[in-house]
Every structure is written in structure tokens, then in C-alpha cells.
Amino acid sequence: MLQTITDFSSNSSPIDFVLILSQWQLFARGLLNTLILFVVTATVGGIVALPLGVARAYRVPVLSPIILCYTYVFRGTPLLVQTYMLYYGAGELDFVRDSAVWPMLREAWGCAFIAFSINTAAYVTEIICAGIRAVPSGEVEAAKACGMRALTRLRRILLPRAFRIMLPTYSNELIFALQATVVASTITIIDVLGAGRTLNGMYYLAYEGFLTAAVIYVCLTFGLARLFAFLEARLNHHLRPCTTS
């Protein structure tokens, strides 16, 4: 029976699924690398973006124009270009090789971590800024009337309310960040797409590896979208209209 399935997979089926399953360890490694890269860079990018987004929303003198230039540059250039500039270009500069960050920049993982984190932070900064500015002014005035200080208003009113407002946009950004991790495969990191390329190269296949990678990314995207749909439903449950029987 097993031999029959193997023969069908390799000779008759348009996709050699037995071969794909036999390389599950390769794709498991790629999936693990993708998840690590995504979770770490999304977390770091979010942490960096929070104070930057607040500064942009409050139009802090000097800081706000600098942050605007930063977000404009990193949102206006492709992530692939940013990653290549770090991976291939940083080592050409003497002061970079002599700096404390060179041990990180000389490794593919370090370059991917820095490029992905900075890129994510640029997008999330503008999302946070827009979320804070979208908070109804009446809620802010009510907080002021209660005697809340600026930091207290920010912590208890503005940020929680802004997070609810920006959640759909933020979820889309994280989905894009997840899919953007494929850039890591271009600098020797074996992520999901890198595993697919490796499989195709090992067995001279046309599309089995890419198709498997696509299926994995669809599953990851679906799971992430469902997670944020659940969060949005929970956090905005009080906004649903009441139903009377």
C-alpha cells in the first residue's frame, strides 16, 4: 500500500506530496525561523514605535519632524533594499566594522533583525500616531475635567482607546510583516520560503517547494487574522448594540 502511494505521488500525481512530507524537518526548521524572526522583530518594532508614535501625535518640537523623516524614508523604500544595504553594504564602511554593532551586522540574522525591526517600527509609528489623533476629543476633555495629568491621560485614556481604534490597521501591518519575512531567504536564512527553494534545488523541482511554502503562509496568515478578529471582538464588545428579546 505504501509503495503504491509512493509510486502514485512520484509518477502520476502533479505534486510529489510524499517527497514534500519526507522533508518535513526542513520545513519545520524554516517555519521556526520565520516565527522567531516575525515575533521578535514585531515585538521590538512595536516597542520602538510606541514613544515615536506618541511624539508624532503630540507634535513634539524637533522630535516630530525627525520622526516624520524616519518614517517617510523607511516606508518609502522597499524592505529588500534596506536589508541588502545592511547585509552587503555595511561591511564596506570602516567605522561600521570598528563599531560595537559589527558582530551583529556581519551575520545574516543580525541584519535581518535590524532591518525588519526598523521597517516595522516605521509603519507602526504612523499607525499609533493616527490612532491617538482619532480618539474623540470629548473623551480627552472628560479626562482633563476629572483632573488627570497628561501622562495619566495617556496611559489610562488615550493609549487604550487608540489601540482599539488602530487594531484593524495594526493587524494588517503585522500580516504584511509576516509575509515580508520572505526577504530573509535572500540573505541565506532558511525560512519557509528558503526551505521551499532548498527543496526545489535539491530535487530539481519546479514548484513543489514554493507551493508548500504558500500553503504554510496561508495557514499562518489565517491564524494571525483570526487572533486579531478575536481580540477586536473582545475589546470592542461594549460597542455592540444591545439586543432586546
From TrEMBL:
GO terms for cellular component: ATP-binding cassette (ABC) transporter complex. The chain crosses the membrane at residues 31-55, 67-87, 107-124, 174-195, 210-231. Keywords: Cell inner membrane, Cell membrane, Membrane, Transmembrane, Transmembrane helix, Transport. It comes from the Bacteria. The keyword Iron does not apply. It is a multi-pass membrane protein. CDD domains: TM_PBP2. GO terms for biological process: amino acid transport. Residues 31-228 form the ABC transmembrane type-1 domain. The keyword Cell inner membrane applies. InterPro entries: AA_ABC_transptr_permease_3TM (IPR010065), ArtM/GltK/GlnP/TcyL/YhdX-like (IPR043429), MetI-like (IPR000515), MetI-like_sf (IPR035906). GO terms for molecular function: transmembrane transporter activity. It is found in: Cell inner membrane; Cell membrane. Gene3D superfamilies: MetI-like. PROSITE patterns: ABC_TM1 (PS50928). PANTHER family: ARGININE ABC TRANSPORTER PERMEASE PROTEIN ARTM, MEMBRANE COMPONENT OF AMINO ACID ABC TRANSPORTER. Belongs to the binding-protein-dependent transport system permease family. HisMQ subfamily. This is ABC transporter permease subunit. It comes from Rhizobium lusitanum.
